[in-house]
Amino acid sequence: MDGRLTDAMTHLSLIRGFRRLRRNTICRLSLRFPALVRWLHTPRPFLMQRHEYRGSSTVRDLLVLLPGIGDSAEDFERYGFVAPVRRIEWPVDMVMVDAHYGYYADRTVLRELHEGVFRPAKACGYRHIWIAGISLGGFGALLYASRYPEDVTGVLAIAPFLGGHDLVQEIARADGLTRWAGEEAEQEDYPRQLWQWLRRSLPERSGPHLYLAFGTRDIFAPAHRLLAASLSPERVFIEPGEHDWPTWRTLWARFLRDAPEATSRSDNR
């Protein structure tokens, strides 16, 4: 009996591993071959994993987590993002959203987040609502805050994608975000729209709290440093590392330890 159970669990693990590999491969290939997006399953509403706070606090926050391009909602628990939150006794419910590249490709990610995640959350009476994302999810978290700033208290962007090389170089040649004029963004040019929102909002420190975290050898580090230059130093976390889960886990621990305005019981914004 034990042997059959072990065999079944091994088989299930292999199936899940194959599905993760398949999704990740299709998501990444879709960047070059957009027709492949049709092979990505995009349920409406999102598939989500929830971890509810079980402590005694009478007030709760909500933390919405967005994965990378081909990652899944379950990866946040798999790579150790849930347990550290519980150890610091932050009275927060966690919702991990299975928002892979397919939702960005069909331009529905913001609508689905608003209708399926944030609108119901606001009706629940949460004290603060935070959104955090990794890589493409970091881009999604920032983009959501730019479109629906009234929905979120703060944002943590971990190693976010911030646009292609040409756009990043354009901002760098202008000597940074505050000096960048930037031509008007087209309707579908989300990265340029995001940078324009950042340029408008950061000097006045208006809108949601914004935190940035990245590794020193991250593939997107040049863009991260451009954004970091416009943020207060206490809002930027940098660790040795690359664009990978071990680095992101270290950065997550830094955020939980060193961002008390996000994780404390204080009501002050």
Short summary:
The protein is α/β, with parallel strands linked by helices and 269 residues long. Helices cover 43% and strands 14% of the residues. It contains eleven helices and seven strands.
- Describe the biggest sheet? 7 strands, mixed
Strand order of the largest sheet: 1-3-2-4-5-6-7
What Rg is obtained from the alpha carbons, in whole angstroms? 19 Å
Q: How many strand segments? A: 7
Strand content: 5-15%
- List the total number of helices: 11
Low-confidence stretches: 265-269
Class from helix and strand fractions: alpha/beta
Mean pLDDT: 90
Q: State the helical fraction.
A: 40-55%
N- and C-termini, Cα separation: 56 Å
What is the overall shape?
globular
The helix/strand series, from N terminus to C terminus, equals: HEEHHEHHEHEHHEHEHH
Can you put this structure into words, describing what you see?
The longest helix has 29 residues, at 2-30. The protein has eleven helices and seven strands. The termini are far apart. The protein has helices at residues 2-30, 75-78, 83-87, 101-105, 109-122, 136-147, 165-173, 190-201, 221-228, 245-258, 260-263; strands at residues 48-51, 61-66, 92-97, 129-134, 154-158, 209-215, 236-239. It is 43% helix and 14% strand. It has a seven-stranded mixed sheet, with helices on both faces. It is an alpha/beta fold.
Record the SSE blueprint:
Blueprint: H1 2-30, E1 48-51, E2 61-66, H2 75-78, H3 83-87, E3 92-97, H4 101-105, H5 109-122, E4 129-134, H6 136-147, E5 154-158, H7 165-173, H8 190-201, E6 209-215, H9 221-228, E7 236-239, H10 245-258, H11 260-263
